């Protein structure tokens, strides 16, 4: 399904926006909150990653002209498979879930995310998802630039080393060595710096520091807050 069609008669009746820095657990938390509430989920970071992957596959070394990235977004489509909670992306019709989080895409995505017309493309798709029903969204600027009227806004944060440990565990499927942890902390900190201009905390967002929380605890906290505003 393509999200290119205009979102006519948009009723953004129920959006929960979860923002935060790299590897703060936004996406996994957002997906689980959506599952608990029985609503859908869309991850804006995945759209920036898909645009990056589609452009990278077209060849040529970065930095890429914005027009060429925008052209590559034509290869990106969206699916909500039966029984699934989260909108997934396809590039040229194929599932690309593993590649989206590769070191190459993670290293290039902040460059692509700084392009204003790519940001508009992502924001338009996110609004299109929201026009289809209650939605949990996650990213960097969901509660500010995209859904300033979201019913509930959360800003998730955690100490950089804790974020790096969680991301390494996810990617390596084992505990990282001291060197691997240091390298991942460095990569995340560098990406946070590049993303600083588009990472905005809404003044009315509830900040949750997850440094000492388990994922179950943070999901339960947000789901409880969400039920309170429904
Ligand atoms: O999972 P992680 O937090 O590492 O990143 P992500 O949510 O998958 O986002 C990947 C990249 O997309 C970020 O590093 C930002 O450059 C960009 N992004 C953004 O600029 N605005 C958003 N709303 C979401 C992501």
Could you provide a short overview of the structure?
This protein has 230 residues and is α/β, with parallel strands linked by helices. Helix content is 50%, strand content 15%.
Write up this protein.
- The chain is an alpha/beta fold and 230 residues long.
- It has helices at residues 26-37, 44-57, 66-72, 97-100, 103-113, 116-130, 142-146, 160-172, 178-195, 215-229, and strands at residues 15-19, 40-43, 76-79, 88-91, 94-95, 135-139, 152-157, 206-209.
- Strands 2-6-1-7-8 form a 5-stranded parallel β-sheet, sandwiched between helices.
- Bound molecules: cytidine-5'-diphosphate.
**Strand arrangement, largest sheet?**
2-6-1-7-8
Number of strands: 8
Helix vs. strand class:
alpha/beta
| Distinct small molecules | cytidine-5'-diphosphate
* Rg result: 17 Å
- The span between the termini is 29 Å
The helix content, as a percent range, equals: 40-55%
Q: How large is the share of residues in beta strands? A: 5-15%
Main sheet characteristics? 5 strands, parallel
Number of helices: 10
The chain-level mean pLDDT equals 93
In one word, what is the shape? globular
The low-confidence runs, each spanning 5 or more residues with pLDDT under 50, are 1-11
SSE sequence, one letter per element: EHEHHEEEHHHEHEHHEH
């Amino acid at each position: 399904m393509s999200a290119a069609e205009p979102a006519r008669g948009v009723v953004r009746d129920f959006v929960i926006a979860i923002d935060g820095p790299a590897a703060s657990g936004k996406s996994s938390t957002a997906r689980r909150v959506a599952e608990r509430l029985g609503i859908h989920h869309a991850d804006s970071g995945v759209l920036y990653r898909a645009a990056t992957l589609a452009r990278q596959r077209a060849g040529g070394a970065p930095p890429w002209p914005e027009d060429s990235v925008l052209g590559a977004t034509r290869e990106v489509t969206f699916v909500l498979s039966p029984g699934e909670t989260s909108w997934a992306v396809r590039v040229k019709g194929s599932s690309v879930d593993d590649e989206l989080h590769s070191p190459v895409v993670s290293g290039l995505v902040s460059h692509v995310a700084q392009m204003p017309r790519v940001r508009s493309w992502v924001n338009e798709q996110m609004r299109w998802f929201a026009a289809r029903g209650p939605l949990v969204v996650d990213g960097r600027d969901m509660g500010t630039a995209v859904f300033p009227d979201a019913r509930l806004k959360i800003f998730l944060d955690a100490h950089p080393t804790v974020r790096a440990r969680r991301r390494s565990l996810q990617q390596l499927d084992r505990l990282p060595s001291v060197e691997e942890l240091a390298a991942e902390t460095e990569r995340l900190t560098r990406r946070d710096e590049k993303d600083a201009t588009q990472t905005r905390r809404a003044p009315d967002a509830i900040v949750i520091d997850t440094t000492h929380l388990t994922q179950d605890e943070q999901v339960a906290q947000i789901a409880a807050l969400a039920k309170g505003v429904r």
